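Hi V.,

You were right to ask for the full record rather than a summary. Here it is.
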Amino acid sequence: MNQQLQHEITEHERFDQRFKSFSSTVAHDIKGRSERFWGYAELDCRSAEQAALPKLSAWGDELVNSVVKVGKIVDALLLLAKVRQQDVAVSRLEMGAIVGRSRKTFGRPDCEYTGSN
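Predicted structure:
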């Protein structure tokens, strides 16, 4: 039983390493291509503005914004992958105080927190 468990742990570690490598490669590839799209979209957008084609310019702006969003998503995924590899310290939270500060911040002092600490 112990040997089987050790084998499964080893296999899981191998899979995890392959997955990390794959996801990193894919993320960087997507990021590189999205940056290229962004560059072309910017050029097209400026050309459309100079040619007085407002609809085409608006589409270019929309494409630029979409590519920027894709870049932010990829950055967030890369950050998540990096954070996932780190050890996280576990500590007790004082939820009453956290909720109280949140209520003040968001202007909802009438909301009551009924959970336990």
